[in-house]
Structures are given as structure tokens and as C-alpha cells.
């Protein structure tokens, strides 16, 4: 199922499969939760992936679970938090009151800080085409399109999100610049090398195969184009550590099961993967302190009368998500969960 509002100058179908990227000699799935939805995509070190019927079924179940989760919860999120379905960026130790507009401003600031960190500025005027991978209801795409005058296309597994994103683009007179469709980030329906910016704001968490996720971003990025991945990670392992501690794995398992997060990795794992693909200007940062006020604010919002009524009306997936939010705070406070940005440039 695909929406039909894609700018004709932006994409060309069918996609051409890339053949030049080889599987890296590392596996970014060493910390998988033990859920029936989770799938393994190992053998990366051997350059091949054995896909069984059971694994294929698990991947499809995961896709359906993610789509259903966002079909159900996106309306609630938009009602309370607006267009941007991601963390806000705050000054460390900042205190933003619930009544303030500071939280929504912080979500805009997250976009701006991500662009700044990657060296993407208005002065460059190089951003003409953008893919928003895991676009939600399109807040980032519409913001970037307005900022740079760029053509943006977003992809999501959720038909509800794609429709709402297109409706908002029309309402904001941006449908000539942005469009949204249902598509899989691991099998993007685009030609090679057509986007000046490949943008992923908090969608990498849902990818069962991190290597394939990154290779698809690289494939669709134009030569000289930028790739920006903003994502939740687990902490980097210390020298000599082979895995997280059992209590850390248990905490992440409980979070991942609720939010359909099938494979976990660290920021350093992403960096290793990008290095294995010979990408340039690779940079990363830990922004955990900068997002610290966000989840407490989400919980306080959920506990308001409006939040509770909306939550109950939304459905069980929303309720389970709300009940899991304190675990997110625990994960951040104990340093198990990290909020990272990773960026690089595709060689010319």
C-alpha cells in the first residue's frame, strides 16, 4: 500500500538493488530480547544471511506489530504532543514546566541540533532531496522542507501515519514538496543515490537488521550526501565486556517487548558499521543528558485528566506503552539506555 502524493521529480520506480556494499564483519544483534517477535539476521561475518520460513514469518509479524502500534498510538501522541514523534533536546539540568510550550520547542530544537551536528546548514543550500525513514506523521519532513525548500519523502510501516502525514502536508500547503507512503526501511522503494540527506529520527530502534538498515540509508544517499541517525541505544560495552549485565538485559527486554524493538546495539556498533562501509566524516555524540527531561514530561502529561481519557480511548497498546515509560526513565538514570546521534557522509 502506497500513498500517491510523491513528487514525480523525487523518486523513480522500480528501485535498483545495490550490489557494491558487502556485509560487514560484525553483528549488531548480540543483545536481542527473547520475544517471539524477534528475529535473527546473523552470519554477517560470513557475508550471508540464512532466511528460514520461521524467520520470514517473525519479520512479517514484527512489521505488523510496529504498524499496529503506531496505527493505534499516533493519534494520541499528536493530540498531546503535536507533529513531532520524537524526544526533545534540552540544556542539561534544565527544568521545563508542563504548562510551558518548552517541550514542543525542544522537539524542534532536536531537529535543529541534529542538522547542526551533521554540518547541514541553510547556507550550504545543498539539501534538495530528503528521505525521512520512519517518518511518523511527517513533522521532520515538513520542517526540513520548509527550512531548505527541499523535496522530502517519508516512509513508515503505518498506513494511519502515512495518511495523516499527507493530510497535514496538504493542510499546510506543502504537498508539492513532501509526501509519505507505506514502505519498509530495509527495502526502500527508491533508486540508488538520489537523496542529499538520508534522515532517521528515532526509527533505527525498530530495525531487526541494523546492518541492512544502514546499508539501505547508504544506498539511497547521493554521492556526497549526509546520513543522520538519531536513535536510542544501549551503553557502549567496556573493554573486555562481551555483553550487557543480566539485569540490564532484563530491563531492556521489558522495554523492547512493549515498543517492538527487535535488536539492540550501541552507538559504537553503529560507528563500526559505518567505518566498515568506508563512509567519511563519521561522528557520534551521546545526548542522553539533553533528553533527560522528556520522559518525565510524557508521564506527567499522561497523568492529566486529558491524558488519562485520551489514553483509555486509544487502546491497550497505548496503555502498555504508558506503563512502560517509567522503565525508560530507569534505563536512562542507570546509564543502560543512551540517546545517540551518528552521522557521516557518503563519498563522492
UniProtKB/TrEMBL annotation:
Q: According to the lineage, what is the superkingdom?
A: Eukaryota
What are the alphabetically sorted keywords of the record? Methyltransferase, S-adenosyl-L-methionine, Transferase
Q: Which Pfam families match?
A: Methyltransf_11
Gene Ontology MF term list = S-adenosylmethionine-dependent methyltransferase activity
What PROSITE patterns would the database entry show? SAM_GTMT (PS51581)
Q: Any keyword Ribonucleoprotein?
A: no
Residue limits of the Methyltransferase type domain? Answer: 131-229
Is S-adenosyl-L-methionine among this UniProt entry's keywords?
yes
Q: Which GO terms describe its biological process?
A: methylation
Q: Where is this region: SAM motif I?
A: 130-139
Annotated stretches, region: SAM motif II? 193-201
The record's section on CDD domains has: AdoMet_MTases (cd02440)
Tell me the segments the record calls region SAM motif III: 220-229
UniProt lists the family membership as follows: Belongs to the class I-like SAM-binding methyltransferase superfamily. gTMT family.
Please give the name of this protein.
Gamma-tocopherol methyltransferase
Amino acid at each position: 500500500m502506497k500513498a500517491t502524493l510523491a513528487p514525480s521529480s523525487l523518486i523513480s520506480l522500480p528501485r535498483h538493488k545495490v550490489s557494491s556494499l558487502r556485509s560487514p564483519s560484525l553483528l549488531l544483534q548480540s543483545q536481542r530480547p527473547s520475544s517471539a517477535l524477534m528475529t535473527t539476521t546473523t552470519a554477517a561475518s560470513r557475508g550471508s544471511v540464512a532466511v528460514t520460513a520461521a524467520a520470514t514469518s517473525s519479520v512479517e509479524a514484527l512489521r505488523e506489530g510496529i504498524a499496529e502500534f503506531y496505527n493505534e498510538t499516533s493519534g494520541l501522541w499528536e493530540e498531546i504532543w503535536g507533529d513531532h514523534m520524537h524526544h526533545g533536546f534540552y540544556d542539561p539540568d534544565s527544568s521545563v514546566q508542563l504548562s510551558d510550550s518548552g517541550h514542543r520547542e525542544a522537539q524542534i530544537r532536536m531537529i535543529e541540533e541534529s542538522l547542526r551536528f551533521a554540518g547541514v546548514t541553510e547556507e550550504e543550500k545543498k539539501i534538495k532531496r530528503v528521505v525521512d525513514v520512519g517518518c511518523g506523521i511527517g513533522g521532520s519532513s515538513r520542517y526540513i522542507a520548509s527550512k531548505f525548500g527541499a523535496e522530502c519523502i517519508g516512509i513508515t510501516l503505518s498506513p494511519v501515519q502515512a495518511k495523516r502525514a499527507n493530510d497535514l502536508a496538504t493542510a499546510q500547503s506543502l504537498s508539492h514538496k513532501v509526501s509519505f507512503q507505506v514502505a519498509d526501511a530495509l527495502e526502500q522503494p527508491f533508486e540508488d543515490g538520489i537523496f542529499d540527506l538520508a534522515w532517521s529520527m528515532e526509527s533505527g530502534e525498530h530495525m531487526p537488521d541494523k546492518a541492512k538498515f544502514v546499508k539501505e540509508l547508504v544506498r539511497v544517499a547521493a554521492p556526497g550526501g549526509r546520513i543522520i541517525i538519531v536513535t536510542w541505544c544501549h551503553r557502549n560495552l567496556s573493554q573486555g565486556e562481551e555483553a550487557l549485565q543480566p539485569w540490564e538485559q532484563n530491563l531492556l527486554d521489558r522495554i523492547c517487548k512493549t515498543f517492538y524493538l527487535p535488536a539492540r546495539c550501541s552507538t559504537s556498533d553503529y560507528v563500526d558499521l559505518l567505518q566498515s562501509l568506508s563512509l567519511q566524516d563519521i561522528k557520534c555524540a551521546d545526548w542522553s543528558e539533553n533528553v533527560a527531561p522528556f520522559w518525565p514530561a510524557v508521564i506527567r502529561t499522561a497523568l492529566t485528566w486529558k491524558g488519562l481519557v485520551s489514553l483509555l480511548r486509544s487502546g491497550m497498546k497505548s496503555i502498555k506503552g504508558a506503563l512502560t515509560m517509567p522503565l525508560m526513565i530507569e534505563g536512562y538514570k542507570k546509564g543502560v539506555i543512551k540517546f545517540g546521534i551518528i552521522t557521516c557522509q557518503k563519498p563522492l
